[in-house]
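To illustrate the input format used throughout this study, we show a single complete record. The first block contains the structure-token representation of the backbone; no residue identities are included at this stage. The design step must infer an amino acid for every position from geometry alone.
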């Protein structure tokens, strides 16, 4: 399969929770992140090509925030390498400058060393 990704995926030291703002339930756990999107691990499949309002719970307070919110579109859901789990890629559709800066800080400060 041809790789369309322009940015290298960054794995963090933590599997941070991502909340679906519509249901106020955990949609999944963060697997990796870039400044353009993220991948989640979830127990249930997530419908592709669907828009979501999401909240990412931060590992600690950053810029006086414990969480950031943004809009993202699910792009692809696959059965994960761990049985009974799914991975879904999301592309950010609307994200503010301050949230973008926090994601950059997350990557810089919490990236899992390779």
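Output of the design step:
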């Amino acid at each position: 399969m041809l790789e369309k990704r322009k940015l290298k995926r960054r794995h963090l030291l933590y599997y941070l929770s991502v909340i679906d703002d519509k249901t106020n339930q955990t949609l999944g756990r963060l697997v990796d992140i870039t400044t353009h999107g993220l991948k989640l691990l979830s127990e249930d499949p997530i419908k592709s090509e669907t828009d979501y309002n999401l909240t990412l719970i931060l590992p600690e307070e950053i810029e006086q925030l414990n969480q950031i919110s943004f809009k993202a579109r699910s792009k692809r859901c696959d059965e994960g390498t761990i049985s009974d789990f799914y991975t879904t890629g999301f592309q950010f559709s609307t994200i503010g400058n301050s949230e973008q800066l926090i994601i950059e800080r997350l990557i810089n400060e919490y990236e899992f060393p390779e």
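Structural context for interpreting the output: The helical segments are 97-110. The radius of gyration is 13 Å.
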